[in-house]
């Protein structure tokens, strides 16, 4: 039986191989390809089953090697959910169940301590490999009631403050021009830009993606709340000597 999704079978196969969920594939077909009907999650699953579209999974032997390597990189404290996400960030697609089985067999001593309730407070220390690797941007709003908002950017490797600005309220354009753009013009493009989930960084993240795509670097733009800038907030909160 012919389906409205038939012209998009190659696209669907490429997308499910890359890793998006059925819901993400459905959203892409509806909003990007303009398919108003017939692109629901259930229909995508049905057509995939009828046409033999399957997600490509890594072989068990190779997955065991990948999990063992990931344990050496992250430490022994990641559970199945965290490890599955870490592997996905490396391009390795695997189910949580299979990853959990391998963690129980490869990492038995720590698995037993986890079952017993042992936890490590800080299992993975922060790491920036070189200057220009990670740029952290965050704001300090302790004096926002007085019309003062500080926004600063630091290099993750050197902890050098590479950009800062003070404004009445958070503003996408001011943050981009005075903090991100000035830092890039003076020091170059960072591989990663790490910010929290605030909308005030949308323009900065957009321009980072554009610049990284232009110069051909690996595109890594990550939202992260618990990064290094909050420590700077305590310093900015104290009166500065005149």
CATH topology of the largest domain: Nucleotidyltransferase, domain 5
Helix content: 40-55%
Shape designation: globular
Distance between the termini: 77 Å
Structural class: alpha/beta
The rounded Rg comes to: 23 Å
Compressed to H and E, one letter per element, the order equals: HHHHHHHEEEHEHEH
- CATH arch. level architecture of the largest domain: 2-Layer Sandwich
Q: Tell me the CATH superfamily of the largest domain.
A: Ribonuclease H-like superfamily/Ribonuclease H
Average pLDDT confidence is 78
> Regions with pLDDT < 50 over 5+ consecutive residues?
218-228, 230-242
Q: How many structural domains are formed by the residues?
A: 3
What does this structure look like?
The protein is an alpha/beta fold. The protein has three domains: 6-51; 60-115; 134-237, Ribonuclease H-like superfamily/Ribonuclease H (Nucleotidyltransferase, domain 5). The chain has helices spanning 9-18, 22-31, 41-51, 60-74, 80-89, 96-106, 108-115, 172-187, 202-215, 230-237; strands at residues 134-140, 149-155, 161-167, 192-195, 220-223. The chain has a five-stranded mixed sheet. It is globular, with a radius of gyration of 23 Å. Mean pLDDT is 78; it is low at 218-228 and 230-242.
Question: Nutshell version of this structure?
Answer:
The protein is of the alpha/beta class. Helix content is 47%, strand content 12%.
């Amino acid at each position: 039986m012919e389906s409205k999704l038939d012209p998009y079978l190659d696209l669907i196969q490429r997308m499910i191989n890359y890793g998006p969920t059925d819901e993400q594939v459905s959203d892409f077909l509806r909003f990007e390809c303009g398919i108003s009907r017939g692109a629901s999650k259930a229909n995508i699953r049905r057509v995939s089953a009828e046409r033999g579209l399957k997600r490509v999974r890594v072989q068990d032997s190779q997955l065991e090697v990948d999990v063992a390597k990931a344990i050496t990189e992250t430490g022994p404290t990641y559970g199945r959910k965290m490890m599955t996400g870490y592997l996905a960030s490396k391009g390795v697609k695997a189910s949580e169940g299979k990853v959990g089985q391998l963690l129980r067999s490869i990492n038995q001593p720590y698995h037993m301590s986890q079952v017993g309730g042992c936890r490590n407070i800080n299992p993975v220390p922060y790491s920036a490999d070189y200057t220009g690797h990670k740029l952290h941007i965050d704001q300090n709003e302790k004096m926002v009631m007085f019309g003062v908002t500080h926004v600063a950017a630091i290099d993750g490797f050197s902890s050098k403050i590479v950009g800062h600005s003070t404004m009445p309220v958070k503003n996408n354009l001011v943050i981009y021009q005075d903090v991100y753009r000035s830092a890039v013009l003076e020091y170059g493009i960072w591989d990663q830009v790490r910010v929290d989930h605030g909308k005030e960084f949308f323009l900065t993240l957009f321009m980072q993606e554009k610049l990284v795509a232009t110069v051909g670097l690996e595109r890594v733009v990550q939202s992260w709340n618990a990064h290094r800038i909050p420590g700077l907030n305590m310093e900015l909160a104290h009166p500065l000597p005149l």
